Protein: Tryptophan 2,3-dioxygenase family protein
Organism: Aquimarina rubra
Amino acid sequence: MDESIKPEIAEKIRQLEKKFKNSGQDLGSYLDGLLHDRYLTYWDYIHLDTLLSLQIPRTHFPDEEIFIMYHQITELYFKLIIHELKQIIDDKLQTAEFFTKKLDRINRYFRVLIDSFDVMIKGMDKDQFLKYRMSLLPASGFQSVQFRLIEIYATPLANLVNSKERDEFSEEDALEEVYEHLYWKSGATDIKTGEKTLTLKQFEYRYTPRMMRIAHQVKQSTIYHRYLELPEKEQNNVHLINALRTFDTNVNINWLLMHMGAAYRYLNRDKGEVLATGGTNWKKFLPPSFQRIIFFPNLWSEEEKENWGQQWVTHQFNTTK
């Protein structure tokens, strides 16, 4: 070995040579590739130019670009959340520390989303929104499959049945049957005719196979199941319980209320509300006190479940009128 080469560099080369030899590979070929490779740049690493090219408005209204970008940012955060949920589900160590660490990350992501929703509530011109939104039909934020996957990863499918029918289903029922009664379907169904909106039909056609595949994968291993499988001492960890309750509250109360705030600003008016894109029944679909979706029901008292989201709803209505 050349004496001009620093000892620590020489040692790393020896380690690399051993690594590639053990795998039947030639270190020299990899070094040739490294020699001829271009230096990595920030913009190439994160595909910046591609990322910035993905905002394609359908109208000439400037604020439509805000609408597009905020939803794209939201979907990226949803992807981060799912990334952490999968790690909890795959974990074999069963410790409250690991569980809590991942939930803290998830709650941090949701906190950013909730805190940033003023971009949607106050950051767009109302007149512009009411015009360019008509070019979005029948697309709707309702069609976010990643949000539905967060729900599926978090809790048994039976906990996501609409509130009027929930007592009729349990984890013993076939997932395909439970799926037909999930709460969000009623949010995109015509109240008078019972017919599914085009928004819902499109969504189901595109994503039902994916959602059902994942529902079967986590049938006995959702976040709720993983919590219940922890040793009793780990289950009783105060920090873990608080993190789970915060996750439940963030997703099933606070996130919905921010959407209600936006809906009241842009869609509500004295002489009747403006219909949401996709025809979703937002006044009956969004209030958390109506659906009472709870991921971890054993972590809440009967009184808390009975009054789920009501005090927050009252506060939200008062601040958005």
